Amino acid sequence: MLRFKGTLRSFSVWAKRFFRVNPGALPIVGFQVLLVACAVMLVFGFSVLAEGVAVAAYFLLVAGVVLQLVCFVRGSGGEEVSG
Predict the structure, then answer these.
(1) Cβ–Cβ contacts within 10 Å for residue 34, how many?
(2) What is the pTM of this model?
(3) Which of 29, 31, 14, 24 lies closest to 71, judged by CA?
(4) Is 25 helix (H, G, I), strand (E, B) or coil?
(5) pLDDT at 80 over 80
(6) Contact, 22 vs 64, CB < 8 A?
(7) Does 81 score more than 90 pLDDT?
(8) What does the pLDDT read at residue 64?
(9) 57, exposed or middle or buried, with CB in 10 Å at 0-12, 13-18, 19+?
(10) 1-5, 7-11, 52-56, 71-75 — which one is most confidently predicted on average?
(11) 8, 50, 53, 61: which one has the fewest Cβ atoms less than 10 Å from its Cβ?
């Protein structure tokens, strides 16, 4: 049990740092969760509800991609990265 708490604590620290560096990641993860929920709703025959949730999921995806793009442009200073 003690080992699990240490692993959970280190994952929590990693996740906080990851979402701070990647602000668009949280809406994108939310999109993925809602998309899976839509699939489950479709399996159980709630197609109208699944459609509404899918629209909300799409908006989360758009918000996440825009946030990541803004973060990328600010981080690179608007300059192209030469490879």
Answers:
(1) 20
(2) 0.75
(3) 24
(4) helix
(5) no
(6) no
(7) no
(8) 95
(9) buried
(10) 52-56
(11) 8
